[in-house]
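Database export, one record per block. Field names are fixed; values are copied verbatim from the stored entry.
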Amino acid sequence: MLLVAALLLFDGYEVRACTSAIITGKATADGKPLMWKHRDTSAEQNRLVYSDAAKYPYIGLVNSNDSCNNEVWAGTNSTGFCIMNTASYNIRNKEDVTEGKDFEGIVMRMALECCGSLGDFEHFLDTLSRPMKVEANFAVIDAQGGAAYYETNNFGYLKADANDPMQAPHGYLIRTNFSYSGYRDEGMGYIRHETAHYLFSRQRDHSLFTPEWIFAYVSRSYYHSLLGSDLRDYDFNAPGATGYAIDQDYIPRSSSSASVVFQGVREGEPVEHTTMWTALGFPPCSVAVPAWVKGGNALPPMLLKGEDSENSPLCEKVVALKRQVFPITRGSGRRYFNWAALYHPDNSGIMQRLAPVEEELFKRSRAAMKQWGDGSWDAAAIHQFYLELDRFVMDAYRELFDL
């Protein structure tokens, strides 16, 4: 019974696991801060929502089965305030006997509704009733250049400032599923943490960070820091090669359900230029689509709940492709994936076929933002652009995969 309980607990850790980073403007290609969340959860289907029911309108990532949109797992509001989290499994005080937890999604939704800066968020945390029922690394950037993690448990938090050269000598911070201020060598995500550090260190040595690079080379990276190997070097011609691999400690894995990159603004730039890039569903089978709070509730239809379903049309297509990557459902087959379906020397892999689609998405989005100019953007122009992107992406999945 103890063994079964331990295995169930381990699986629970894996189901609520994420990899993330905060990058200040001094380390990015355009001087704008970036914040990245690669989400892992048991909720396969998620979508975007827009809300203007409180002080600040916001766009948020929610689970499709959350019909009231009560929990937001990453989001940005009209002030340029952006928030996300990773679950932490070593930050709870051992003497803490609080019942109930997992209020992180509620806390982030409330923060989006009322916070416009890191200072506001700190005041918000300070005034929440205790216990807060959270165990998380909250990540926040704002339009004033603020960028920090808040390693938070039921009764307090510790701030890690990405603008502090002592804490972030290279201009970025990375967190997975443990807190630096938590119990040493406890928690989860140590291998993914080292993988992300390795990938970031290689990039900073020869170039600056962009959303495009994060999606293409981190959220879809199959480098394994402990093994020191990359599946992109897989030898399909080796004797006995099946094209399958074990789904263990890569940044993308079966529990990955979204990848989000927030691109903030430079000092003096309109806060409405803050961009939320979202790859819904399993990131290796998805593409990054932009959204702006200024566009209001007319978000790209493919990212919203469908006419006949709570699921978003894009996420449903992505999850359908994911089934080709994880086709074995009996026994322990769910722990293995078909690498050949994602990546193949003949360029037939899902990731390879979608790469030009995402490149075109970024190209069109950059051109549109340039055309809209340095001042206030027109909501009608954003709406029209959403519809163009929607047609382009949905047509691409139809033509490439008959979905």
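Remark 1: The radius of gyration is 20 Å.
Remark 2: Residues 134 and 392 are 40 Å apart (CA to CA).
End of record.
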